[in-house]
Amino acid sequence: MATLILHPGKEKSVLRRHPWLFSGAVARLDGRARPGDTVDVVSHEGRPLGRAAWSPASQIRARMWSFAADETIDHAFFKRRVAASVARRAALPELAGQQGLRLIHAESDGLPGVIADRYGDTVVVQLTTAGADKWRAAIADSLQKATGCARIYERSDVEVRSLEGLESVTGWLHGAAPEGDIVIDESGVRMAVDIVGGHKTGFYLDQRENRRRVAQLARDRRVLNCFCYTAGFSLQALAGGAREVVSMDSSGPALATAQRNLALNPQLEAARALWREADVFAELRNLRAAGERYDLVILDPPKFANTAAHADRAARAYKDINLHAMQLLAPGGLLMTYSCSGGVDAELFRKIVAGAALDAGRTARVVQHLHGAADHPVDLAFPEGEYLKGLLLQVD
User: Fold this and answer.
1) Least confident span in 80-84, 308-312, 317-321
2) I want to staple 25 with a disulfide (CB 3.0 to 4.6 A). Which of 10, 65, 69, 127 is the partner?
3) pLDDT for 248-268, tens place per residue?
4) Do 218 and 241 form a contact (C-beta atoms < 8 A)?
5) How many Å apart are CA 169 and CA 335, to the nearest integer?
6) pLDDT confidence bin for 45, thresholds 50/70/90
7) What average pLDDT does the segment 291-316 reach?
8) Are 50 and 79 within one domain?
9) What separation in angstroms does the CA of 79 have from each of 68, 98, 133, 229, 240?
10) What is the CATH number of the domain that holds 279?
11) From 149, 226, 228, 340, the catalytic residue
């Protein structure tokens, strides 16, 4: 096994149990290692620090598998880690009976680069790093044993893999495609999950509790759901008794899927749902010019900034949509606004939204801070895992 030797003082982050080692922390690699191979990590003085996956193509040169210098990284290691991750979810009462559930949340579950989401009897796995890619078979086998699932599908087709020198990989790792659509029930609403072509692994599981919150808030309100995708928020608003729900997205196929999801729920009043295919940035201005007013506006845009280097551009986009959303709210209305950009932290996001309120000439108060669901935990040593941040605002 090769040994990764750090520059003096660069062991501090590892001692704080942060799992990433950037290129600037690496003094040298003694021995030979291929992408994804396990390497011993030692301080400049030779102190053993643990074992990591080597990734020479990435600026994150190594990701820690273990902070124990003597722990063997083998099939049994992944079996233990996967089983422990699944067991942690089973121990949380609020996750009991969920048909859509994140089973592994990468670094925060001690498995860097590994995402696994369960939809009924199907598990979708996403491997984003060289180390995770190398242990594909062990991870899939461990997931099958820990869950007893009928099938496992791989969706390793995200752009971040290119930063690791990896190509996209998709396909069945266990079992075969089910007959018909995969449909889950979330808080009494049925939703189809496109594991092959949908965003992420097919669905936005991280917003589960926030969608439930919308159902609590929506009664008798006129609701505008921007960047609605397949209408998770919209259908919960209808289930909560919204007077009208306008769902907006630039993607025609996403809106078509959203309308099919509505058809899966005959208990919902379809006549209260309106659909608008449009660029959200432009359409918010058009709605304001037309004098439209809403009681609840939901802003759940796509990622605007992967890293802090793109934060300025992202800030302008977030400010734009929040400013115009506030101008569309009736006095006392509610704004539920989110950022999933890793390059925009919670403090910066709040400042952006505060600036939008000032420019809109509105007074906004934070009613609730919003986060990912309980199956998306954040390791205290790895704050980067808290990518989803949101605010529920009451706007005068």
Assistant:
1) 308-312
2) 10
3) 999 999 999 999 999 999 999
4) yes
5) 39
6) very high
7) 88
8) no
9) 17, 23, 16, 35, 41
10) 3.40.50.150
11) 340
* 198/254 Cα distance (integer angstroms): 9
Tokens of 5: 């030797």
Phi, psi of 320 (to 5 degrees): -60, -50
371, part of any domain: yes
Verify that 267 and 128 share a domain, yes or no: no
Per-residue model confidence (pLDDT) at position 394: 98
For 71-85, what is the mean pLDDT? 98
Q: Is the pLDDT of residue 137 over 90?
A: yes
Q: Residue 180: is it exposed, middle or buried by C-beta count within 10 angstroms (0-12/13-18/19+)?
A: exposed
Coil, helix or strand at residue 382: coil
The number of folded domains in the chain is 3
**Structural domain range at position 161:** 75-180
Q: What is the pTM of this model?
A: 0.94
Instruction: Judge whether 228 counts as a catalytic residue.
Output: no
